Structures are given as structure tokens and as C-alpha cells.
Amino acid sequence: MSSSGLYTDFFGLTERPFTLLPDPDFLYWTGAHRRAFTILEYGIVSRAPITVITGEVGVGKTTLVQALLRAVGEDTRIGLISNAQGGRGELLRWALNALSVEVDPGLDYVGLFQRLQDYLLEEYSAGNRVVLIIDEAQNLSVEALEELRMLTNINSNKDELLQLVLVGQPELREMVTRPSLRQFAQRVVASFHLSAMSAENVEQYIHHRMKHAGGTGDEFTKEAIKLVYENSGGIPRITNKICDVAMVYAAAEGSRTIEAETVREVLDDNIFLVTRPAEDGDDDGATTRTNSEEAAE
Fold this sequence. Notes:
Rossmann fold; 6-stranded mixed β-sheet; two-stranded antiparallel ribbon; ATP hydrolysis activity; Type II secretory pathway predicted ATPase ExeA
């Protein structure tokens, strides 16, 4: 079934405003998203060895990464690993593959490491920086994180030849602060925990996405939006799920306004599982570490 068979034609939209695929074109810049993106840019520009971005499932971390990929200059080579797995050496192969570096399948660990080092030196000599982004990094083992730290030891005089950006769920933040990963944590120059949206953000988010798709932005009533927020906990992905189906229901009923009752029907029908995120507490801001702070530890 085409998207027009759902509700886009009925509402006069150019596309579905609440799809689940990460799309930088639809990114709504809350204050937290702007700060998270600033930290990403800061990490790259400052040649930070490791930058860490964490957040609950569905808060928009991957969308931020996609926006970053669009924003980097031509002098930046970026490799993206979406879900790395494997033991010693496998992560190195993932990295080389993400950076489009051709290697002999029979190379051992030493050969792979040398190939990466040669590539980094070539790019550095050409005036380029190399950034490796690892999404879903909470799935990495402690051993894999230590292997990544070793890769950041490849340098030329004072400059880092390889920069790492780790993006993951809150468990990643817990992992890198373990005593056993103290050396890894010392290489993290900037980190940010992306929290869920506030009630006001959710209202602005829904208006933004509706307008971007060709709507007026007023299709959802305030009561409907309040109900969406209460049942999504401010998580964009869950917000999208509820709003998308609510628009299907409204179109089926011939209503161009999504009322609270329509949202309630969606929730009562249990079409999908909606779970509230864990409480973030007060830790929802950026932390940056200067060289002097790192040296003092």
C-alpha cells in the first residue's frame, strides 16, 4: 500500500510526517539536540580522541549522526559502523571496511593494524581528518572498547590521526565510567546525554513535522498532543508511532483534525507496545574535558 493510501492525500501532505526512519530533513532541533550536535562538531573540530553521545532508545541519536554526515567538510573522511560485533581483530576489520580501505582477507591482526596506520598517515599527509562513528556502541564488549582506545594511540606528533565518536544507549555511559575502563574514559574529551523531550517540545515537534510534510501544523489538538506526550514520555520514536496511527484513524473517520479521543482509541487498541523510558534524572547535559583536566587525573 502506498503512503497516499494511508492518509497523505486526505490531509494534503507531500509525505508521511511521522515515519520511523532517521531523516535529518525532519529533525526538530530542541535545545538538547542542538547541544548534542554542538558537542559532536566540537569533538571533530578539536580533534578529540573520543566523543560519546548517549540517550534512550528513540530520542534521535541516529538522526543526529545522519545530520553530522551531511555537515562535515570535504576534508573529513567518515566511516560509520552501525552495529559492530566480534572479537579481537574483527572490530579492526569493521573499521577498515567502514572507511572503504581494501585489505587482503588473509591479513592477520598485525597486518590489519599496519594497513589502518598507513591509511591514516596518507590521509593526514593530504590534510584530511579521519573520524570513525560507531552507532549502538553499547553492544561493544569491554575488550572491544579497549581495542578502540588503542587505535586512538596512532598519532603524528601532537595530532590525533583517528577520532572516534561512540553513540549508544545509557548503558554505554555506565560502561565507560567503570574503573576497569579508566584509561578509556580519560580519552573521552566530550560527552553528552540526550534526554527525552518536554511537553512543550513535543507540541513544537508535532507542529514542525506536520508543516514540513505540507500541513498547517494545527491538525492535532492541544488535548491530543498532551495525551501523546503522556504516553510517549517525550521519546520521538514513540511519539511518531502514536501520531502516525492516529492520522490513519482520523482519515478513516473522515476527520481532518486529530482529537484526543482518536489518540485514546489508538492507545486502547494496543496496536503496538508503548513503554515509558527510564527516568533520566538530572544528568541531561554536556560535559567537556580540557587537556589540563585530563592531565590532572
